[in-house]
Backbone:
């Protein structure tokens, strides 16, 4: 295996610093540095960009991002065992890596980043979806980031890119496709990781749109969609009846039959329904 920099192979780094992956932290490490560099390239041209990385672990993707020309990487790592390994990377790339030891769900990275900003991460499985929803639903759009390049369990990646009528179609697909172009750009088998997870993984690349595809209040849309898919087998006149006593009128005004189910409704009509409900 060829090296992307002068630092030791990741397997050696893990052994040296005693960084065995912890299931409780959702850790599965990518050890192939050529693969981490490929993921960094999938994030686009990193030259002149600040990169936010969550869950760097021993730093495989971090090294890929830096070797591919990122201006600066801000890495948020909860596991203090990884800090010495990340410090070695910081020394090898002077002034280009900042590491924060803490919980990504509790840290606002904005004060440490300068636009243009891209987010690229092999997200810990246990917080990946929550972080994605946060990044897709800021109060102001366009967001602080221009793109997201994120690794998920393949099942989650399929939910993000799903189309109406499929079993995977739901809230994640609608939130992602409302404000971004999202596509699966790389599939990874379990054996690419240490330890191998029980499921396959996939990298999804999101490009932020200048404005949402259809007008709608973000919080209301999220609430409508979550309510609709919370009881996805029910007809919408039943699953959404708590939103309005006149829900059937709102559905018809949005070109939705009251007997339709959530998985049949495309993004445009969900946005129309959200606008109708917002005007009451």
Residues:
């Amino acid at each position: 295996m060829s090296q992307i920099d002068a630092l030791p192979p990741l397997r050696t780094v893990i052994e040296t610093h005693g960084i065995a992956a912890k299931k409780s932290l959702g850790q599965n490490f990518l050890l192939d540095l050529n693969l981490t560099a490929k993921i960094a390239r999938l994030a686009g041209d990193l030259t002149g960009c600040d990169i936010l990385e969550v869950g760097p672990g021993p730093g495989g993707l971090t090294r890929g991002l830096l070797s591919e020309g990122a201006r600066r990487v801000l890495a948020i790592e909860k596991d203090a065992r990884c800090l010495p390994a990340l410090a070695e990377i910081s020394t090898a790339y002077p002034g280009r890596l900042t590491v924060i030891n803490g919980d990504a769900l509790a840290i606002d990275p904005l004060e440490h980043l300068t636009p243009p900003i891209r987010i690229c991460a092999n997200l810990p499985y246990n917080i990946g979806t929550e972080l994605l929803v946060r990044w897709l639903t800021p109060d102001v759009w366009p967001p602080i980031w221009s793109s997201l390049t994120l690794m998920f369990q393949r099942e989650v990646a399929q939910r993000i890119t799903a189309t109406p009528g499929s079993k995977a179609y739901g809230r994640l697909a609608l939130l992602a496709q409302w404000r971004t172009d999202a596509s699966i750009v790389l599939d990874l088998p379990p054996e690419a990781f240490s330890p191998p997870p029980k499921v396959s993984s996939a990298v999804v690349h999101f490009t932020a749109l200048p404005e949402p595809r259809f007008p709608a209040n973000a919080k209301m849309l999220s609430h409508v969609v979550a309510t609709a898919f919370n009881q996805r087998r029910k007809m919408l006149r039943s699953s959404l009846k708590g939103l309005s006593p006149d829900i059937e009128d709102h559905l018809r005004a949005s070109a939705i039959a009251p007997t339709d189910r959530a998985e049949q409704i495309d993004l445009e009509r969900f946005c129309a329904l959200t606008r109708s409900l917002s005007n009451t």
